[in-house]
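ARCHIVE CARD
SHELF: 3
SLOT: left
DATA:
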Amino acid sequence: MSRKLDDLNPAFRPKAVELVARCIEAGIPVMIVDTIRTPEEHAANLVSGTSKTKHSKHLDGLAIDIAPYETWQAHGPDKLNWDAGKPGAVKEPWGTMGRIGEGLGLRWGGRWRDPFDPGHFEL
């Protein structure tokens, strides 16, 4: 698993950089949790239930997972402990992050029901 913006697909990288920058400008420091994954890492995520899609956009460098730094600092990468609300009732600052990402034309995992993934953004 990588957290490097440079590992993202060149078609997606500018949007990911702008997403992070706009979150920071909105007063939401974020941690980059995941950019690109290997097939082996993705297979492990499927087994653990962290991912439910056979071909994640993370495999192609077309997705990024971010979290408010405060949340990351408190819970690390354990998404099960992130209190982001639920579909239809997303808590702040997650909702602001989602609006920023959607404003950039990205798909936001906070709109999904299963899996609900408010830190996920993809092209």
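SLOT: right
DATA:
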Amino acid sequence: MNQLVRFFRQLGPGIVVAATAIGASHIVMSPVAGARFGFELLWVVLFAHVLKYYGFEFAPRFTMARGESLLEGYARVPGPKSWPLYLFLLGTVLQGVAVLAGVISVAAAVAYSALGIVGLPTWSVVLATLIVVLLWIGKYEGLDFLNKIMMLLLVVGAVVAFFAAPPPAAAFAHLVIPVIPAGSIFLLAALLGWMPTGLDVAIWHSLWALEKEKTWERYATGEPEELRMKMFRTALFDMRLGYAASLVLGIVFLCLGAVLLQPRGLVPQGPAVAETLSEIFTTILGRWMYPVFFTAAFFAMFSTAYNCMDGFPRAFAETMRLLMPHKKDDGFVSQAYWGFMIAIYILAVFFMTFVPAPVFLVTVAGALSLLFAPVYYALNYYCVTRLVDDASYQPGRWARVVAIAGIVFV
């Protein structure tokens, strides 16, 4: 029973969306957007969340309906043999390096500002290595619980700071008035790519959901189809809750950057990015918030980095399994997983060492994610509308309209 309760707490894409999204896109890119352009990019946060939503929701719909991952759906898309898988493989390789370099460098910048001791590149290597070791020994569960506590502290601190220094009412008009200020196109692309997170994370969700389903079936009782529907509804509720939290926090962090950083000419950048971001909290809440912010921000970024370090190799290994069906043994999948992890670890460390600019690395990763977003979104739409027969799992007419608009938007 305890195991089932524990499973319920961890079930669903929403937790992973929060853990992956409430990191670089919120803690770094949103305040940078506010500090550089005031409230003018506020619309990006709302539009990206609303129009990209179904790209993520299609993952649990497809996986629960068919009992297989989105990648298996990709393999059935018409056209040249396995072309979506090869495209996804390319995206995984390119983004695996860029995203890891970005999120780990931000976590390293937080540790560097808080503790010093060694330089930013050294912190990057230490944290990247620590994540690989934790994945190898499988001892992350205790830290995962601590991550959730720290993330809650960060959220509470941000909300309190927001209400203590609220933006003017006129600022919220920018939520619905698209404006592209001069010099913002690169940051805008990154925000679109990573708000709330990259659409490739939907594919990770479908892979994780298959593992969760096995746990559910092991500890729950009832008919398989009934259990699957319960799991789907739970996952959907969890996802929507996490998604709503992501939207609110994206708006909050951008507004804090506009209200507290822009008037003082402070723009988070370079190795001192975390030091600048801490001003958001210490200015309003006092210096006592300084260590709280650094602790909470570190664990939020570390959680994001951990999920990415696991998600990219997992997706790569599953793609290779589908492209090479004659190699069905678990040994091949394991070798592909760890081989890819070590490869992106080495390349990410290289970039973090020679480009010690966390904000730049995160922005590059976000913009790169946007390049693949339309294709992933369209493929997810095809899978859930053409390959799912059960009407209970198919999206309704309104969902399809918003999804098509979202594909065009990204």
